[in-house]
Amino acid sequence: MIKTPENKRILVVDDDAETRDILCSILIERKFIVEKACNGKDALKKIGINKPDIILLDYLMPVMDGMEACRKIKNDPETRAIPIILCSATHIKKGKDGKMRVDGYLEKPFTIEKLFRKIDTLLKTQN
Q1: How far apart are CA 42 and CA 25, in angstroms?
Q2: What DSSP string describes 16-65?
Q3: Are the C-beta atoms of residues 9 and 32 closer than 8 Å to each other?
């Protein structure tokens, strides 16, 4: 079965509750199935239970930051294919090999149009 946007699952990971809730509301309005997590550790738990189609991941968070969560997701054969959009208001350093292991990047603040362009691009590459 080919998934339509109405049944695509997005995990929103951000330690700021207001940001997380706003993003979730916007995504729900566009008919996505949305789950949320408050840090990388919480995200990994939720991914283990129900794999999302895309992860929207904040960079700076307590407990486990976005880059550590991204590293764990991309190093796991069960989850490495899940596209990750990393969001940050700070400059992000690339990994030791000179590559960021994310599928998309959004600098905060970003527009909703930019967010949906990234999501649409990643969803098209999955099909």
Answers
A1: 20
A2: -HHHHHHHHHHHHHTT-EEEEESSHHHHHHHHHHS--SEEEEESS-SSS-
A3: yes
Q: How far apart are the C-alpha atoms of 111 and 68, rounded to whole Å?
A: 26
Contact 31, 5 (CB under 8 A): yes
Tell me, rounded to whole angstroms, the distance of Cα 101 from its chain centroid. 12
> What is the pTM for the complete model shown?
0.88
What pLDDT is stored for residue 6 in this prediction?
Answer: 65
Sequence-distant (≥ 6) Cβ neighbours of residue 108 within 8 angstroms: 87, 88, 89
Q: How far is 5 from 16, CA to CA, in rounded Å? A: 26
Per-residue pLDDT at 92 = 58
What pLDDT score was predicted for residue 98?
Answer: 45
Tokens found for residue 42: 């919480």
Question: Is 71 exposed, middle or buried, given 0-12, 13-18 or 19+ CB atoms closer than 10 A?
Answer: middle
Helix 66-75 crosses helix 40-49 at what angle (to 10 degrees)?
A: 30
* Interstrand relation of 84-88 and 54-58 (parallel, antiparallel or unpaired): parallel
> Which ranges of the chain have pLDDT less than 50?
1-2, 95-98
